[in-house]
Design goal:
By secondary structure, the chain is of the alpha/beta class. The protein is built from 21 helices and 14 strands. The chain is flat.
Length: about 575
């Protein structure tokens, strides 16, 4: 429907002489202002040299004629020139019918749909190849809750983009070489461990090595030597321990990813990118993109308004920044894409600005299609966490703790796990991109609203209604009430909300919408007699439309849907 309104406004602008004007069509926060509101008249008035209110009146009359009474029941002008549009009963009913009939396809981009509007207003990713990098845990360390946040956000963004009609490849980039790895291997050797068996064992070895590196000069020298040896790759015994440790780490990471409902088409490592990164940086040095400083190769970011950073150390080993450059080329080689999205924590924002600035001089096309998205910290009562200090909150431990709490009200282990994952993912995704997450265990598991279990329970309740209804799937929308229920007017916006969330890479927009939808369903359920009441067939169709909308929305967000609660 938004598309139809936009096209009508576009025609009005062509006739008025302002065809290039950018405007917004949005769902008003106040239902009293209708189903859609637009600033179109305000946006065009300046270009046309017109009074906004006067032009708004003209636009409203044009839209009334263009859309017709079967689409818009009434169109009004408010304030300095906003145009509010209320849909007719027929148009609302049509959306409900579509939500019911389309099932799992409701809200997805249509492959045959051709957008004539600017991509920023339509399905920005339809038909594109997009690679999304996220999670990025480092081998020889346990996956902590920072990686959990990145995994949840990255998967949701991937799902949103896929829902918009793109082909998506997921990749993760883990550190398997460098000082941190050397610290872990030093710790393993010190404790006589040649066959590491668990991620926890290696995490403890890393903590021991990290502490020794900062407090023991001899240990520091030994770890630095180990780091050089790993890069050289000639010490067979050391490299065998390295391979075994990495395999154990990856086995644990894949277990957690499966639990979280994500997978990766590509698992890249530092060791895969080192050679390319070093070569590209040295090539850039000859071209004047990089420069030498105290034996190291640096990118002088101050000239570009970013941080100056080392890309090759004085020991001739690449830093994370050089490896990121190598990864950009490796991705393009393995899976050429139209867009590349990288999801990391906020703490890497400055570093990536430097990396992308350097990449823009090395390979402008690669840099132009790369977008860096940041996530905030997940904050617990223990405060900010540090793996070096050994008090890191691991992803596995965190999920176990929340699942244990969820099991107090859900005896079935599978349901308890689904509820826990729903609680965790909701609290992460409800925040705007880059915002910190305050995790309150009690609130996250509440059924009273603003939680994942609240959405899950609303869906379970709606499904139970349909299960009790005889021949509910054969029910039609005949004898619908004269005025649409409020929930119908919310359901019709679902495809637009999903498209906008994808366009802005903002899963929180969909979370907020589903929370409102669940609240309205609960009100409808409490106030209306669905089975055996007036307009039963229509109400059952509305229940099916709600189930499809909520199910599809939760699926896009990666939130599990329990069969019962």
């Amino acid at each position: 429907m938004e598309e139809r309104i936009r096209k009508a406004i576009g025609e009005a602008f062509v006739q008025a002489g302002a065809p290039e004007t950018t405007f917004a069509v949005e769902r008003p926060s106040d239902p009293a202002h209708g189903d859609y509101a637009t600033n179109a008249a305000l946006a065009a008035a300046k270009a046309l040299g017109r009074k906004p209110r006067e032009f708004a009146d003209e636009l409203a009359r044009f839209l009334i004629e263009k859309l017709g009474k079967d689409i818009a029941s009434h169109i009004t002008v408010a304030g300095p020139g906003f145009v509010n549009i209320t849909l007719a009963r027929e148009a609302v009913a049509l959306a409900t019918v579509e939500a019911d009939a389309q099932g799992s396809e409701w809200g997805k981009a249509k492959p045959d749909k051709v957008w004539s509007l600017d991509a920023s207003q339509g399905e920005a990713f339809r038909g594109k190849r997009v690679i999304v990098e996220y999670s990025n845990p480092n081998a020889f360390k346990e996956m902590h809750v920072g990686h959990l946040v990145g995994t949840v956000v990255g998967e949701a963004i991937s799902q949103l983009i896929e829902n918009s009609g793109a082909k998506v490849a997921r990749d993760t980039f883990g550190g398997d070489i460098g000082p941190n790895v050397a610290k872990a291997l030093w710790g393993l050797r010190k404790n006589g461990i040649s066959e590491p068996a668990t991620a926890q064992e290696m995490g403890a070895a890393y903590v021991e090595g990290s502490n020794a590196y900062e407090s023991n000069p001899q240990a520091k020298e030994e770890i630095d030597t180990l780091n050089q040896a790993i890069y050289a790759g000639t010490d067979r015994e050391l490299m065998e321990l390295w391979r075994k440790g990495r395999d154990v780490s990856m086995e644990e990471f894949r277990r957690i990813w499966k639990l979280l409902g994500t997978h990766f088409d590509f698992e890249f490592f530092d060791s895969d990118t080192t050679e390319t990164g070093v070569r590209v940086v040295h090539d850039g040095l000859t071209k004047g993109i990089f420069e030498r400083s105290d034996g190291a190769i640096i990118y002088n970011g101050e000239k570009k308004g970013v941080h100056t950073m080392v890309f090759i150390t004085s020991h001739d080993t690449p830093t994370y920044e050089a490896k990121d450059i190598g990864l950009a080329f490796l991705k393009e080689e393995r899976w050429p894409s139209d867009e590349s999205i990288i999801v990391t924590g906020n703490e890497q924002a400055g570093r990536f600005k430097t990396v992308l600035a350097a990449l823009s001089e090395i390979a402008p096309l690669l840099a132009a299609k790369t977008k860096h998205i940041t996530t905030g910290f997940l904050k617990l009562s223990s405060g900010k966490m540090s793996s070096r200090e050994g008090n890191v909150v691991t992803t596995a431990g965190f999920i176990q703790d929340v699942t244990r709490k969820a099991s107090e009200k859900n005896a079935d282990p599978l349901i308890a796990e689904q509820v826990a994952l729903g609680a965790i993912k909701y609290m992460i995704l409800r925040q705007a991109p880059g915002s910190d997450i305050m995790f309150d265990e009690e609130k996250s598991l509440s059924l009273e609203g603003d939680s994942g279990p609240y959405l899950q329970y609303a869906l379970v309740r709606a499904r139970s209604v349909l299960a009790k209804a005889p021949n509910s799937q054969q029910s039609t929308a005949n004898a619908a009430p004269a005025e649409p229920a409020r929930i119908e007017r919310i359901i019709l916006h679902f495809p637009e909300v999903v498209a906008r969330a994808a366009r802005e890479l903002a899963p929180n927009l969909l979370v907020n919408y589903l929370t409102e939808l669940a609240g309205e369903w609960n009100s409808f359920y409490a106030q209306e007699r669905i089975i055996g009441g007036n307009h039963e067939a229509h109400k059952l169709m509305l229940a099916r439309a709600f189930v499809n909308t909520m199910s599809n929305g939760l699926t896009v967000l990666g939130i599990p849907v329990p069969e019962k609660m």
